[in-house]
Amino acid sequence: MAQLGGQPIFIMKEGTERTRGKDAMHNNIAAAKVIAEAVRTSLGPRGMDKMLVDQFGDVVITNDGATILKEIDVQHPAAKMMVEVAKTQDSEVGDGTTTSVILAGEFLKRAEKLLEQKIHPTVITEGFRKAADKAVEILNQMSIDSGIDDYEGLKNAAMTCMSSKIVSESREMLAELCIDAIKAIAEKDEEAKWVADIDKVQIQKKEGEMIDDTKLIKGIILDKEVVNPGMPKSVRDAKILLLQSAIEIEKTEFDSKLQITSPEQIQQYLDEEENMLRKMAEKIKNSGANVVVCQKGIDDMAQHFLSQAGILAVRRVKKSDLEKLSQATSGSIFNDLDDITAEKLGKAGLVEERKIMGESWIFIEECVDPKSVVILIRGGTELIVDEVERAIHDALCVVRDIVEDGKIVGGGGAPELETAIKLREYASTLGGREQLAVEIFADSLDIVPKTLAENAGIDQIEILMKLRASHQKGNKFAGFNLENGEVVENMMQDGVVEPTVVKIQAIKSATEATSMILRIDDVIAGAKTSMPPPGAGGMPPGMGGMGGGMGGMGGGMPPMY
Fold first, then answer.
1. Which CATH superfamily is domain 151-211+378-405 in?
2. Model pTM greater than 0.85?
3. Measured in Å, how far apart are the chain's first and last C-alpha atoms?
4. Which residues are part of the catalytic machinery?
5. How far is CA 417 from CA 39, 331, 465, 467, 478, in A?
């Protein structure tokens, strides 16, 4: 609202809320800090889990930062930015989501003190940008080379990633599964670099048995059953025909009429249809195929002929599953039965229908050099199975990161401490107020080892002093053993390993989110629109029920903000 000659002029819609200057900055920083505090206790091997219950009563139990923030219904715009930090970290590298959010929260907390000293936000963000670039450089310099052939490094990294999860007791076995899965699907690109697409690792989960019964299947699982009870339920040394078209008599695309004048003509018509289906089945049999996986339907009569020939058939398989099956069995996908050749059929050691928890699934396994594999997850309850899936996803991403990037660092807060020490040295070479920003950036990195110690119930200040002293002596991977609270000179030797790219991405995404929040000095929130009362404004009276909760739905829908 502005004044003109004593007359008020409304510029924005009535009811619009506006927060400016320091108030806007402090509100945004406070909201971001609350989000960071929400996930802080879940960091590290001694971190705790969160139980999240949504409006429908569905329960999620997890300590995965991205999952926690996804499940929480966040309303504040600055808090939503923190959720985006976790999402970015998860989609880019798959691990380190909690670390990235905690770092962003600490950056903002310390930047607030500089704002109180009248240092301009742009100066702080510029200092943070320089510090982040230098931190990435330091992390790359301190990294150790690894890769697809470094089995020990891959295994330790996967186990470190799962040490804070519910699966920590079975982490060694699961780490080996994840490495075998990534090694199976990893391929070299045109530049001879390793690429591992984790979408080629299918994850199937079924409650029942124990976490230790989780296994890797070198092939694929189809959530289907054999189409005809007369067909074999198990086929050894399978030759698999992958078919896109239906094994049916196709209807004509245009309207047509058949004029039948005698019963014999009906029989001829039916005989011809049967003959065509028999020929289709013979073509499949003559190709040498003993398993058919079809994307579309299979006629009942065709099923009969296939079962007579001892061929196992599956129908209505998703296109994506057919493509994965092609990658797993090295078979071509055919569209026409006349094009089938024996060399292009897929091959698998075993195709078998099995019942798991009352559901029939078809297992296609023992494939030679499969480029698509399945991890079948088992666990006591649905909640456990879901959390095991999240843990395995993180471990697969960590192994993938090392295979593609080829660099690792020691864990346990060691990289952050070493980076902080080097950044303080770098800060002394800068002039002006940017030096302060780089120094508080370095101090903020200490939040990771401090939080790890705090969650383990160890005195964080004492541990921090001991660790700094060890790093000053040149032990770049010095950390502490959370089991006994002792300082370890090399976390690598204790098997605590993390991919460098996870640490780099956490710093990058946290810095960018911090810079964006710090540069906001004006928050203009539009007025919330409300529905008119029943019958008002020419609206038919019967429509009025939408005002309270979508009329007949009894107000069950949550309000939209």
1. TCP-1-like chaperonin intermediate domain (3.30.260.10)
2. no
3. 25
4. 64, 97-98, 394
5. 21, 51, 11, 8, 9
